[in-house]
Design goal:
It contains 17 helices and 19 strands. The chain is α/β, with parallel strands linked by helices. Helix 2 packs parallel to helix 8.
Length: 496
């Protein structure tokens, strides 16, 4: 699940059935993301274990990050170190700093194809690449020094001491590991907090998916609401790098995402929602805990009762296990407690078998489903299915189930699209990192609101607005998730 310093929870809600009645969810209506002036050096492993086509993937990743930067002599400067048994400076911080020149320099890089002297490469960065002679601006307080190390193996020299010296010199180090990399080595290199600075992907074919994390890492948020650069009729709400429109109490947001209509009242409607969760060994225990938080994040947005939302939970790996059926638990508190108690299966990835179970059993009357009530399935997976999914995925949609597909890490996006209902773009979500699935939770909350009239969701809307304001404040102070969760829970208890 790439990055914990992202916003969590959301704003207004979109109803499940009559979108015209409820209005559209608030969408980001403008973006302005400037990158803080940074001296950025990529340290890329081109040892013999990195095949030529894999090295091309690294170059694509580097190029995509550069494309999102504000580069120039007085903005962000980029340097590139290529290493194997020896170290080669491909681009100095004082070199040509137009975006076109940087991208051309990346295209010219060739692999060295020898050993893996990662410590030597970091030492080169400290003594040469980040020196004033090479164009670094380390003495200026407004400029950051950042190194991004990409490696796929165990180094043949030490990295702990030299990395400590680099960090002591004010260099922020991100460590990206690929394939059979030694995770201990990544942690020795990276800056604190480690969960923000260490990333792992199973192969170079998916390293490009980390691009968004680093684009966000270098983004400086601009408050478009404060500058008046928006077109909201009533309320403008700042979000990282963008803004969204909202409405005052008694009004709902229209489908144009900026104007508002007075509420007329309405009634809640029923929903049968089943989570289908991947518990395979590739998820890893610490990430499985994040998955459980993701589930409870969605549960928090529902009105749970016999006449409104019911929730069921199924976990799968090499086999399928029903954790609890629809209707077993009658309150959010009980559902969330059951989710927290769920144990991790830790085997294979039989997504097709799990989808078949969802169709044949989870939404059956014997397992608590209610005839005539809308059925929603949220499928969560982090890898390629080991069995065939097409038939079961088609049957689920043909049965009238609304299917959302959520993929993380090495999930196959073609499979996610096959699972997702139409329009596919609104029903499948992907993130490279388990730590950012809370942002997907936001989007899902907007799409599965069960209120016929958003005015009935006022207490939820007020709660979510308070949460968003709180989290934006906490992010600026770099407070970790656990303290955020405690304050969110306190807010929720006051409102509910």
């Amino acid at each position: 699940m790439a990055r914990i310093c992202c916003a969590l929870l959301l704003s207004l809600l979109l109803l499940l059935h009559s979108p015209a009645a409820c209005g559209a969810p608030p969408q980001p209506r403008g973006t302005l993301c400037r990158t803080k002036p940074t001296d950025l050096v990529f340290i890329i492993d081109s040892s013999r274990s990195v095949r030529p086509h894999e090295f091309e993937k690294i170059k694509v990743f580097v190029s995509r990050v550069i494309e999102a930067l504000d580069v120039g002599p007085n903005a962000t400067r980029v340097g590139i170190i290529n290493y194997a048994s020896a170290v080669r400076s491909e681009l100095a911080l004082q070199g040509p700093q137009s975006k076109a020149a940087l991208l051309q320099a990346v295209r010219r890089i060739q692999p060295l194809s020898t050993g893996t002297m990662t410590g030597l490469a970091i030492q080169f960065a400290v003594s040469r690449a980040f020196s004033a002679a090479e164009g670094a601006r380390g003495s200026a307080p407004n400029f950051k020094k950042v190194a991004i190390v990409v490696t796929d193996g165990r180094p043949q020299d030490g990295v702990q001491d030299v990395s400590a010296r680099a960090r002591a010199a004010g260099i922020e180090i991100f460590a990206i590991g690929v394939g059979r990399v030694d995770m201990g080595t990544l942690r020795q290199m990276a800056s604190e907090p480690l969960d923000e600075h260490v990333d792992y992907v199973e192969s170079y074919s998916v390293i490009e998916k980390l691009t968004h994390k680093f684009q966000e890492a270098f983004c400086v948020v601009s408050d478009l609401c404060a500058t008046g650069d928006h077109d909201c009729e009533q309320v403008c709400v700042s979000t990282p790098g963008a803004y969204r429109c909202a409405c005052r109490d008694g009004f709902s947001l229209n489908s144009d995402g900026k104007t508002c209509t007075a509420c007329n009242g309405g009634l809640g409607s029923a929903l049968d929602l089943v989570f289908l969760i991947d518990g395979s060994k590739s998820v890893r225990p610490e990430n499985f805990e994040l998955v459980k938080k993701f589930i409870n994040q969605i549960v928090d947005s529902l009105e749970v009762s016999d006449k409104q939302a019911q929730v069921g939970l199924v976990q799968y790996s090499s086999s399928v296990r029903q954790e609890f059926p629809l209707g077993q638990f009658k309150s959010k508190k009980d559902i969330k407690a059951a989710v927290k108690k769920m144990s991790y299966m830790e085997k294979g990835t039989m997504t097709g078998q799990a989808l078949k179970y969802l169709v044949d059993s989870s939404f059956s009357v014997i397992n608590g489903a209610r005839p005539g009530v809308p059925k929603v399935g949220i499928v969560f997976t982090d890898g390629r299915s080991q069995d065939y999914i097409s038939d079961a995925a088609k049957k689920a949609k043909d049965s009238g189930f609304r299917m959302f597909a959520v993929g993380v890490g090495n999930a196959v996006e073609d499979e996610l699209r096959e699972i997702a209902s139409e329009p596919v773009a609104e029903h499948y979500f992907y993130t490279a990192d388990f730590r950012t699935i809370s942002k997907i939770g936001k989007k899902l909350q907007m799409k599965i609101c069960v209120e016929e009239d958003p005015c009935e969701c006022k207490s939820i809307m007020k709660f979510q607005t308070k949460v968003e304001e709180l989290i934006n404040s906490l992010q600026q102070k770099h407070i970790l998730w656990k303290s955020v969760a405690k304050r969110i829970e306190a807010l929720e208890n006051k409102i509910i």
